[in-house]
Amino acid sequence: MKLKSLLLRYYPPGIMLEYEKSGELKTRSIDLLELSPSTDVSALVEEIKRAEPLITASRTEQVSLLVQRLQEKLRENSNHSFYLFKVLRAHILPLTNVALNKSGSCFITGSYDRTCKLWDTASGEELHTLEGHRNVVYAIAFNNPYGKVFTLIGHCAEISSALFSWDCSLILTGSMDKTCMLWDATNGKCVATLTGHDDEILDSCFDYTGKLIATASADGTARVYCAATRKCITKLEGHEGEISKISFNPQGNRLLTGSSDKTARIWDAQTGQCLQVLEGHTDEIFSCAFNYKGNIVITARTIPVGYGVDWRGLRVSKLTSNCGQDPGLRRTSSSDSSHTFPSSASPLFTLHIE
C-alpha cells in the first residue's frame, strides 16, 4: 500500500487517507471524535502512527499540521447569536429542500415547481435555474469537487432521496419504486440496485466511511447493506408505521430512525437489534439526526398546517451513558412559539452569525 494524499475532514473531525493498493485508489478515515483544543498534538500523532501503518515518520509533520488546523476550528467561538439576513422569494411553489456547498458561498433549493435554483449566499442573487425535471424535486446535494452534470435514469417512480458518498465517488438514490440505486459519480452509470423492501423507500444514507448503506421504507422496516458487496447485512424491524428518516451516528455502529408511529429508535447497525425507543412526540416524526459526537439526537414531528418551523415539534435527546446496549437518554423540549407562512408563498430564510 502506498499513501497518496491526506485530506482534512472538519465534520466530524478526522483525517481521510487516499492510498493505492494493487493499482486501485482506495480511501479510509482516521476519526478524531475526542479531539479538543487542549489535546496534546505530539502524543496524538504518535498514537495515530502506532495504529495506522500508512502514517510513517516522514508524514509526522504533515499530520501534526492537520491536527492543529482541526484544533483551530474547534477553538472558534460557537456561542453565536443569529439574526435574519435575507428573505428570498425563491420559487413560485413551496420548497422541498435546501443545501449549502462546502464553503457556504452558495446554496441550492428544490421545489414543487419542478426546478432547482442556485443562489449566492452573501448577496441572495439567483445564479442559475436548473430545469428539466418533470415532477417535484425532492432531493438535492452538492458533490465535492463539483462541475459534472449527469441525468441518472433508471428508477421507474419518484426519487425520494439522493446523496453522495463522503468521497463523492458514488451517488445513492432511493425511490418510490421500492429500490435504491448506486451510481458511479464519474460517469453517471448505475452500478447496483438494492432491493428487498415491500413498499416505497422514503430515505437512504451512507455511513461516514461509505462502507455501509441504510434505507428506510414505508413498509415500516429499515435495511443495512454493504456498499462493497451490495448485500443486505441486517433488517431493522419494530416500528409500527412507515419510517421517514434514517441516519448513522459518526462511529457508524448505531442507526437512528424516525417513524409515523410517533417514535424514534436507536439500533445496532450490525445486528439490527433495537437498543432504545424514544417516545414523547404527539405526531408523526419526519426528521431526526445525531450530532457529530453521537451523544445527542434531535427529532422533529410533522406540522399539521401551513409550512414553516414549529419549535414545539422538536425534541433533543442526550446520551447520559456511553453508546452501549442500553444507553440512558434525557429528553428536553422547547415550548417556544411557532412561525408559519401560507402555502401560496415559498420564502427562504437565511441566517447570519454575529
From TrEMBL:
**Which Pfam family is one of this chain's hits?**
WD40
Locate the compositionally biased regions of type Low complexity.
334-346
> Where found in the cell?
Cytoplasm, Cytoskeleton, Flagellum axoneme; Cytoplasm, Cytoskeleton, Flagellum basal body
Q: Does the record's keyword annotation contain Repeat?
A: yes
InterPro entries named in the record:
WD40/YVTN_repeat-like_dom_sf, WD40_PAC1, WD40_repeat_CS, WD40_repeat_dom_sf, WD40_rpt
Tell me what this protein is called.
Answer: Dynein assembly factor with WD repeat domains 1
Q: Which Gene3D superfamilies match?
A: YVTN repeat-like/Quinoprotein amine dehydrogenase
The WD repeats lie at 88-129, 152-193, 194-235, 236-277
Q: Where is this region: Disordered?
A: 325-346
